Amino acid sequence: MIENPLVKKLKDYKLILASGSPRRKRFFEDLGMTFEIRLKPIDEIYPEELKGSEISEYLSELKASAFKGLLKSKEILVTSDTVVWHNNESLAKASNKDEAAEMLHKLSNSWHEVITSVSLTTLSAQKTISSSTKVKFSELSDNEIDFYIKQNQPFDKAGGYGIQEWLGAIAIESIEGSYNNVVGLPTHLVYKTLMDMVD
Q1: CB-based burial label for 60 (10 Å; 0-12, 13-18, 19+)
Q2: Which residue positions in the chain have pLDDT lower than 50?
Q3: Any residues with CB less than 8 A from the CB of 44 and at least 6 apart, and which?
Q4: For 50-95, what is each residue's pLDDT tens digit?
Q5: Which of 38, 69, 154, 166 has the most Cβ atoms closer than 10 angstroms to its Cβ?
Q6: Parallel, antiparallel, or unpaired for β 14-17 and 126-137?
């Protein structure tokens, strides 16, 4: 029987996913990984001068810092953060319908950048990786935006939308980079980095 190369390499390690995102959980399942979910709430506040990937990298590492002193030998902690960067502005998670609608009006008929950073942390080391994907939205009508928000309640997603949902199907004209990265995890980079960091 042929083994999953990553599973084989990590057989002596415990992988910990510090995310409540069902999308990231699904990606780890799709990679064939055995993992445990551990959550530590933090205030996602970052210095105002940070831009683009600096924000997602800072928050990813901040999430890892909540586990300081709690990791054991042979444990690998995975934390991550996604930023939607548009016109030199970060569009974070919308907290209500009005904020989501405002974000989607900004994204309408324009390009934006989706940046996901992932920190892989052990007792002795930490490596943070980032992936950027450019996405072009078609022009969105008020009715389309209202319908999407009502149907999908996208309040846990950066930029106020999920590419895998109805809006992604009807509005995305072009995408440059990793699709999985926009969903929430650059699986190709996570796979490669895990393969490289384990002896």
Answers
A1: buried
A2: none
A3: 59, 62, 81, 92
A4: 999 999 999 999 999 999 999 999 999 999 999 999 999 999 888 8
A5: 154
A6: unpaired
| HSE of 96, CA atoms in CB hemisphere, 13 A | 1
Phi, psi of 152 (to 5 degrees): -110, -15
Q: Cα(130)–Cα(14) distance, rounded to whole angstroms? A: 23
81 noted as active-site residue: yes
Catalytic position from the list 81, 98, 142, 146: 81
CATH code assigned at 189: 3.90.950.10
- Distance, in Å, from the CA atom of 32 to the CA atom of 105, rounded to the nearest integer, reads 38
Please state the domain count of the chain. 1
Containing structural domain, residue 124: 5-197
